[in-house]
Structures are given as C-alpha cells and as structure tokens.
C-alpha cells in the first residue's frame, strides 16, 4: 500500500525493473543504477528530467504488458510474457494476450511491490496516455510523487 507522499517508481516497459532473465527483481542498488543510467542517457545535463503535471495510472490486470509486443521501443528486448501460471516464460513474443483470448499474461515478477530496503518506495508497471506516441515512454522509468488532492480516489 502506498502512503501519501510516498515515492513511487512507475516503469513503462518492465524490462528496466526485471533481472537479466526477466523473472527476478534485482537488488535495489542494481535498480537504482539502471535508473541513474537511464537518466544520464535521457537528460541533456545528466540529471533527472523535471516534469510537473500529467496523468498516469497503475493497475494489475494480469494482461500481457504492452512492452512485450515486438517493435516497441526496446531497451534490451521486449518485456517477457508468461503462461497463466505467471511463472512459465513464453518465448514467442507474438502470443496473443490472455485479455484477448490468448495465452500470454503478465509475469508474477511484474507485479507492483514495495522495496524491501525502503518501505516508503514502491515499484510498478504503469500506463499513461500516448498523445506523444509510444516511443516517448516505452522503456522509461519515472519517479512519481503523488499528490493528495480533494476528490481524488
């Protein structure tokens, strides 16, 4: 559960969060190194890009994640999909999502989780509007501070 003001990392292509085998979450120091490297590559001055406002959502529906389809903006490779057990990794990235009647689902390792070393930090795969196109966010990692606004649920 996220507490008010709790930092929240949202990963739009889970490959940044998953270990090299796509099934195991790396240590928090490994994850932080990946985040720092991404920021150095994306930001002209090597610092975090500051953006205010915007919309994003996080959910867990067990469907194949969008970044698991070939042809997306791949950091290393498409994100993995799993069989309905959530553990058995599928090799064919063209397998239809379970939400469309197919047999590809999100892997258990892609579930949102709270950092074991910092309980005020959470990680999740997220979604956001694609007004700028998918290439603007697939494979990206964002640090998000949520605001407690009136009427927000």
What do these coordinates show?
This is cellulase. One of its GO terms (biological process) is cellulose catabolic process. Belongs to the glycosyl hydrolase 45 (cellulase K) family. By secondary structure, the chain is mainly beta. It has one domain (18-148). It contains one helix and five strands. It has one helix at 28-42, and strands spanning 7-11, 57-58, 113-114, 122-127, 141-145. Strands 1, 2, 3, 4 and 5 form a five-stranded mixed sheet that branches. Strand 3 and strand 4 (122-127) form a beta hairpin. The longest helix has 15 residues, at 28-42. It is globular and about 40 Å long.
Radius of gyration: 15 Å
Topology, number of strands? 5
- Which regions are unreliable across 5 or more consecutive residues at pLDDT < 50? 1-28
Number of domains: 1
Distance between the termini: 14 Å
Sheet bearing the most strands, described? 5 strands, mixed
Q: Helix content range of the residues, please?
A: under 10%
Mean pLDDT over the full residue set: 67
State which percent range the strand residues make up. 5-15%
What overall form do the CA principal axes indicate?
globular
SS content category: mainly beta
The helix tally amounts to 1
Order of helices and strands: EHEEEE
What would you say about this model in short?
By secondary structure, the chain is mostly beta strands.
Q: How are the secondary structure elements laid out?
A:
Blueprint (H helix, E strand, L loop, with lengths): L6 E5 L16 H15 L14 E2 L54 E2 L7 E6 L13 E5 L8
Parallel strand pairs: 1-4
Antiparallel strand pairs: 1-5, 2-4, 3-4
């Amino acid at each position: 559960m996220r507490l008010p003001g709790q930092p929240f990392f949202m990963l739009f292509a889970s490959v940044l969060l998953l270990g090299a085998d796509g099934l195991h979450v790396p240590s928090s120091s490994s994850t932080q190194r990946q985040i720092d490297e991404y920021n150095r590559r994306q930001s002209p001055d090597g610092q975090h890009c500051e953006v205010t406002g915007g919309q994003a959502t996080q959910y867990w529906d067990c469907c194949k994640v969008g970044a698991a389809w070939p042809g997306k903006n791949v950091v290393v490779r498409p994100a993995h999909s799993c069989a309905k057990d959530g553990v058995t990794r599928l090799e064919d990235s063209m397998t239809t999502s379970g939400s469309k009647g197919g047999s590809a689902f999100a892997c258990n390792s892609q579930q949102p989780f709270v950092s074991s070393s910092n309980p005020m930090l959470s990680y999740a795969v997220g979604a956001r509007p694609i007004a700028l196109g998918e290439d603007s966010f697939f494979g990206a990692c964002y640090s998000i501070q949520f605001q407690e606004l009136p009427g927000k649920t």
